[in-house]
Amino acid sequence: MTEPGAGTLRRLEELRSEFDDLASRFLGYPTNQNFDYSALLPFLRYCVNNVGDPFHESNFATNTHEIERDVIGRFAALMRMPADQAWGYVTNGGTEGNMYGLFLARELFPEGIVYFSEDTHYSVLKITRVLRTRNIMIKSQESGEIDYDDLYETVRINRDVPVIFMANVGTTMKGAVDDVRRVRAILDDLAITRSYIHGDAALSGMILPFVDDPQPHTFADGFDSISISGHKLIGAPIPCGVALTRAAYVARIARSIEYVGVMDTTLTGSRNGLTPLMLWLAWERFGAEGFREIVREMLEVAAYAVERLNGLGIPAWRHRNSVTVVIPRPSDEVVEKWQLAPYQEIAHLITMHHVTRDHIDRFADDLVAALPVTESA
Ligand SMILES: *Cc1c(COP(=O)(O)O)cnc(C)c1O
């Protein structure tokens, strides 16, 4: 085999050291950088492919389906779905999980209308275009949570049409959680019998199970499917996530494909076989107790950030059980330096597990230095 030349290696090394530099100032995106999957390096030598339904046979034998089922079992238990009713697979991220949920919903209720709030992730509007489902955007409250009155009125005037509701379990910008029990109550009040609720729990799906007073986030609370990202709270070098739902729904869309000997229940054909290993390894290492501790530490740093910034007169705030700290949009220089994600007049920092109090202190110093100088009273 030809070894890569010196120029090639140099270019890779430059890229790697750039990543190292960026990693030291990474506050704006919900991706945890504290992870170590070096135990999996030997698997880079194999052509691993998880094509097909992880709960069925596959002719493509170099797969990690058994471990993938283990991973789905862990997440299903976390989301309070009995093992014998649960189905799911490891996706390429939260977007695919959302698409899977809405795909199932559309197959169950082809004429249904998809409702979601203004604060919903940008993937959802795109998905409704791909699936060509009718959709109605509902107003949000200032907090980022859906406006229940607007939802009530809008569903009321479409009472003859099935409801497909896309619930935010932690919005991207403000970390707000739509109260799925209130949504269920609205549907009951309007005597809507045909409905489906998908939960977009990209980040908070790995936070709420580990706090003492969580907002509703489980199947027991009324979800029909849930999407959780793997590369966010858990952390991974390759984007990934899980789509979770009831096996009975999936049976409605399953088609058997003879040539690969699989059930074609997933959105893509060939699927990543390494990401299930990563999620499994993380679960093996941390377990529920380890994740509980990680979440506790993250929430502590988030509380510290709010306190520290408020002490400087900056009106930072966050939702209960959220690591997303909302701040007024700082200067472009600060946004760029700390890799923040600004949106209109706000921005946020997200205290993922790699973010320490020291990061917050340094960030606070930069914010203060960038503030316009005002006359002191
Ligand atoms: C990040 C995020 C997504 C999309 O997840 P990807 O893994 O980036 O595809 C969806 N919804 C919410 C609320 C998110 O924060």
Provide an overview of this structure.
This protein has a seven-stranded mixed β-sheet, sandwiched between helices. By secondary structure, it is α/β, with parallel strands linked by helices. Strand 8 and strand 9 (262-263) form a beta hairpin. The chain has helices at 6-23, 65-78, 94-108, 122-131, 148-156, 180-189, 231-235, 247-251, 274-311, 332-337, 357-370, and strands at residues 86-91, 113-117, 134-138, 163-168, 195-200, 225-229, 241-246, 256-257, 262-263, 324-328, 346-350. Helix 5 runs parallel beside helix 6. The termini are far apart. The structure holds pyridoxal-5'-phosphate. Pyridoxal-5'-phosphate binds next to helix 3.
Quick structural gist:
By secondary structure, this protein is an alpha/beta fold. It has 11 helices and 11 strands. The strands form 3 sheets. Strands 1-7-6-5-4-2-3 form a 7-stranded mixed β-sheet, with helices on both faces. It has a two-stranded antiparallel sheet with strand order 8-9. Strands 10-11 form a two-stranded antiparallel sheet.
Overview features:
alpha/beta; 377 residues; two-stranded antiparallel ribbon; globular; 11 helices; 11 strands; binds pyridoxal-5'-phosphate
- Report how far the terminal alpha carbons are from each other: 72 Å
Rg calculated over all Cα atoms: 22 Å
Which descriptor suits the 3D outline? globular
Largest sheet: 7 strands, mixed
Question: Compounds present?
Answer: pyridoxal-5'-phosphate
Residue share in β-strands? 5-15%
Total helical segments: 11
Unreliable residue stretches: none
Oligomer: single chain
H/E series: HHEHEHEHEHEEHEHEEHEHEH
Average pLDDT reading? 94
Provide the helix percentage: 25-40%
Structural class: alpha/beta
The count of β-strands is 11
Strand order of the largest sheet: 1-7-6-5-4-2-3
